[in-house]
Amino acid sequence: MPIYTPPLRDMQFVMHEVFNVVDEFKNLPPHAEVDADTINAVIEEGGKFATDVIFPLNISGDTEGCTLDKATHEVKTPAGFNEAYAKYVEGGWPALSCDTAYGGQGLPFVLNQCMYEMMNSANQAWTMYPGLSHGAYECLHAHGTDEQKKIYLPKLTSGEWTGTMCLTEPHCGTDLGMLRTKAEPQADGSYKITGNKIFISAGEHGMTENIVHLVLARLPDAPVGSKGISLFAVPKFKVNADGSLGERNPIFCGALEHKMGIHGNATAQINIDGAIGSLVGQPNKGLAAMFVMMNAARLGVGNQSLGLTEVAYQNALAYAKDRIQMRSLSGVKAKDKPADPIIVHPDVRKMLLTAKAYAEGGRALAIYCAMLLDKELHHPDEKVRKDSGEMLALLTPIVKAFLTDNGFDATVMCQQVFGGHGYIKESGMEQFVRDARINMIYEGTNTIQSLDLLGRKILGNNGATLKKFGKLVGALVQEEGVNEKMAEFINPVAMLADQMTKFTTELGFRGMQNPDEVGAAAVDYLRVAGHLVFGYFFARMAQVALREIAAGNTDPFYGAKLQTARFYFAKLFPETASLMRTARAGSKPLMETDLALA
Amino acid sequence: MPIYTPPLRDMQFVMHEVFNVVDEFKNLPPHAEVDADTINAVIEEGGKFATDVIFPLNISGDTEGCTLDKATHEVKTPAGFNEAYAKYVEGGWPALSCDTAYGGQGLPFVLNQCMYEMMNSANQAWTMYPGLSHGAYECLHAHGTDEQKKIYLPKLTSGEWTGTMCLTEPHCGTDLGMLRTKAEPQADGSYKITGNKIFISAGEHGMTENIVHLVLARLPDAPVGSKGISLFAVPKFKVNADGSLGERNPIFCGALEHKMGIHGNATAQINIDGAIGSLVGQPNKGLAAMFVMMNAARLGVGNQSLGLTEVAYQNALAYAKDRIQMRSLSGVKAKDKPADPIIVHPDVRKMLLTAKAYAEGGRALAIYCAMLLDKELHHPDEKVRKDSGEMLALLTPIVKAFLTDNGFDATVMCQQVFGGHGYIKESGMEQFVRDARINMIYEGTNTIQSLDLLGRKILGNNGATLKKFGKLVGALVQEEGVNEKMAEFINPVAMLADQMTKFTTELGFRGMQNPDEVGAAAVDYLRVAGHLVFGYFFARMAQVALREIAAGNTDPFYGAKLQTARFYFAKLFPETASLMRTARAGSKPLMETDLALA
């Protein structure tokens, strides 16, 4: 059976030693009192919940899956899932970073980030139920009417109800402009919604007495395409004026998808047969409202793969220390055993260190993004709020695509460490791979993320935000440029930042001539950008570790951190060389003739 | 439902136009009469078998899986599997490249290679039953006693019986030196075998009346380690002197593994409780005898991934032409539709072309290897036989590891082309990924292949065989060096060959100082070698295509082949730059301290 230990030490290192989050919180009025003890206590308790309550349900949930009762349209989730959710509610976890105005605890997103990383390590399929729900909370909090907020936010905050996002239809996923679900205005100001949705995560279940579906649909007079889409809140059970539940709304699960992984999550086909809903935000501005939820979800998906990377790493590491097979090439290491533990073999270590570096780099990036979100929401200085939002927007597609590509590779490598035993279900390793696979697809495929990054977030503002990230790198160079011990970490990042600036300008020119040049380069470009970001954070983490070691701190954590950073720059970062080359090869080899794909 | 069309045209191109196999066969006495018509007729019929008989059972076989009756120890394979096997036998397919002395058709391995590629595209799990059986045939043909040959070879040739290879035990896979299964000599010259084996592919089934298990075990006086392992033929039912079946031998399936994929294949735990077997080859030389089977199996595993790459590509291509979503960045392409087919998008094309290039490069390499095998077995000139065998030995780990790594990436990319629909079982795409995953693990993990390549096959003979491959590259440069049109294909290969020569020498020196340097570089090195080989074959294919186009041939096949070659050199080959860099980074970042993995 798989193991999992919450990586509290590394989270604390990133929060307290690298980013000094408590100092940052002091500048954010709602979080000014949040201290390190609170933070540490919350993540410790969160880790217990993840480890004790939902981790034991991960394999059983995968094996059992969800079932639909076609007569009642009700879905049965795997054994133990409902009880685990009840404990989650009882512990007040849904409220962690929700608005105190609706019963929330109002704690920073940084904490929510850590909590979700651990829950994703423990059980991604289960975690999607509260995860989607929190996205619905964010969307209604930002765009709901006062009445919608009054009805829904307290229930979503307490966890008594959950929420979903209903976007995809059979003929449209990426291209939501083509969606067909209709919304007809009713005399009482409500809307009657009709249509068919697919791939609705956590779309139906018996964990809560009600579910609020956020549904994209078209008004009768709506313009064609993506400018004619509106957003509606459509509850499973209508809500009476006194807040009690009314009649069942005809928004039914018609079938459950048979999937490669995340079997414990009910991925539903949702048939909407004249269900009554209310408009969220402005008519025809539904996509903008939904994007609040989408951006949160994209960070959330990156976090899913971060969680899987960590848990896969822990298991592969334990196996590699325990499993004996062959002798070390450089001589017998375990004289008392008939063979050496496989951790002595260089390539086994390379696979382990790859997963470790992806987990640690990803954690730093994800916590940094959560900090940006807290600042965007609560910093008293408008410019800081704006800058934080822009930087977060730049980093969001990187979190989504880079962390999920890395996470897939990491889970595959950790499975490989197990040899044939990794292919067997009981090891748990193959489930991590199957679960990680969806993260590269949903909430916008990783190709879409790359176009969002390069086309919109970078070329769309002439590289202004990228330059701001470049300034962070520049500041580090300024600060540590004379420190010889930092050279091995800073030099490659500074060089790549310089190359990227030139390359981005070049791509901007090329893209003006031929937009397919942007499409052809985007995926490689995003990976290069991911390494720029990881490289920067590894340099900052190395800076702290070097400082501690110089100050006489003998905690082996710092030596290990330095070695992971060195491994990262020696063995992973250099792929940027090839990526720049293939990106530069342009669109011609892809587009020149239709013959290629005959 | 997935589609599949046998790639007959490309197979014919490789066999007839690139390698001129018929001319090569003229030099091999048993194959001197094999002409192009025979070859084409056989692969056409083989393609029909794959498409009509076993392809329809691929998804159903995955869904149903195999079941063990614990009372009888009999295994039920998925519906239709037994009937498909009966048709396979009826068609005489098991005999295709078997020795005519035992009822075989004696056709070249080149044909068997094409047949198996198509069967693997259609149904990898099913194809493993005859595949393992053919391996057992090879082993007994090479190392069996006259009596073993007389008993087993006609039955394996006709397909009336099948065979397995029983190597792995719970505590040893890679490190067979630790195996514990015992063989006690009996008074009548037979051996009584006792032990437990796991991961035995096609280990039990009801397709045939008997199964011959080739079992590795230890004699009582055997030296410790891998030098004390012997090989035994242990039939499920004992065979009487007249060839009829005798009593059941106590070699039972104790359980079936629950796996990530290849559900249609019965991966068995085999309990051997004093079963009677006969010695194959010399006492304590079992590993050498088994290696005949292993080498065939390693080529076979590469071929499995080649098959999956092709079928995944075909399905992704069809989907990309059909599915409409978003408009082309460079302007509307399908004016009559609400969106453009996704094949207009550069990154979708990149994913498709990656799979296409991996399939076409892999096919050329695999057919080349089969040709080498035919020459090794049948060329009248001993030196040619020896050279062919050495070149095949060099290329075998590349076929196994490079084709299976590529195949996994290709199936993942082709699944990605389907977006969310690729994660749903009904598309068939996720099964290709799950099935492809095992190919990187079994028959020696890809790490083991890389050590075999770099440590044994290259540094082990001071790069002599690699130099011979370099001479092939040199000959092509000689031949086409003045042809400007070939420069784009030849130059990168020639440059890489040169770099590899230097790098190999460097690694040889480093390895002498510290053997871990070899282990640290091997996986990257194998991938570079894979590109050298692919690059060479793409250059040769481009040479033929250019010649045909220059001669006025208007078949669009040649233009498409050129474009795939150009894509390959522009977008895939450049990863060698990073791989050389990370390989050169050496073992220190992996080995320097134990802290890293704490």
Describe the structure.
- 2 copies of one chain form a homodimer.
- Among the domains of chain A are: 8-143, Acyl-CoA dehydrogenase/oxidase, N-terminal domain (Butyryl-Coa Dehydrogenase, subunit A, domain 1, Orthogonal Bundle), CATH 1.10.540.10; 162-285, Butyryl-CoA Dehydrogenase, subunit A, domain 2, CATH 2.40.110; 450-598, no CATH class.
- Chain A contains 18 helices and 11 strands.
- Chain A has helices at 8-18, 21-26, 36-54, 58-64, 81-90, 109-143, 146-158, 286-322, 346-378, 382-417, 429-439, 446-458, 464-480, 487-513, 516-550, 556-572, 575-584, 588-591, and strands spanning 67-69, 74-76, 161-166, 182-185, 191-200, 210-217, 230-235, 237-239, 245-248, 251-256, 268-280.
- Chain A is globular.
- At the A-B interface, helix 8, helix 9, helix 10, helix 11 and helix 12 of A face helix 8, helix 9, helix 10, helix 11 and helix 12 of B.
- Chains A, B: Involved in the assimilation of dimethylsulphoniopropionate (DMSP), an important compound in the fixation of carbon in marine phytoplankton, by mediating the conversion of 3-(methylthio)propanoyl-CoA (MMPA-CoA) to 3-(methylthio)acryloyl-CoA (MTA-CoA).
- Chains A, B: Residues 284-451 form the Acyl-CoA dehydrogenase/oxidase C-terminal domain.
Summarize the structure.
The structure is a homodimer of 598-residue chains. The first copy, chain A, has 598 residues and is of the alpha+beta class.
Radius of gyration of chain A: 24 Å
Quick one: how many beta strands of chain A?
Answer: 11
Figure out the total of helices of chain A: 18
- Could you tell me how far the N terminus lies from the C terminus of chain A, measured between alpha carbons in angstroms? 47 Å
Beta-strand residue fraction of chain A: 5-15%
The global form of chain A is: globular
Largest chain-chain contact?
A-B, 98 and 98 residues
SSE arrangement of chain A, N to C: HHHHEEHHHEEEEEEEEEHHHHHHHHHHH
Largest sheet of chain A: 7 strands, mixed
> Which residues of chain A form runs of ≥5 with pLDDT under 50?
none
Helix content of chain A: 55-70%
What value does the average pLDDT of chain A take?
Answer: 96
The oligomeric state is homodimer
Structural class of chain A: alpha+beta
Function (chains A, B): Involved in the assimilation of dimethylsulphoniopropionate (DMSP), an important compound in the fixation of carbon in marine phytoplankton, by mediating the conversion of 3-(methylthio)propanoyl-CoA (MMPA-CoA) to 3-(methylthio)acryloyl-CoA (MTA-CoA).
Protein name (chains A, B): 3-methylmercaptopropionyl-CoA dehydrogenase
Domain Acyl-CoA dehydrogenase/oxidase N-terminal (chains A, B): 82-160
Domain Acyl-CoA dehydrogenase/oxidase C-terminal (chains A, B): 284-451
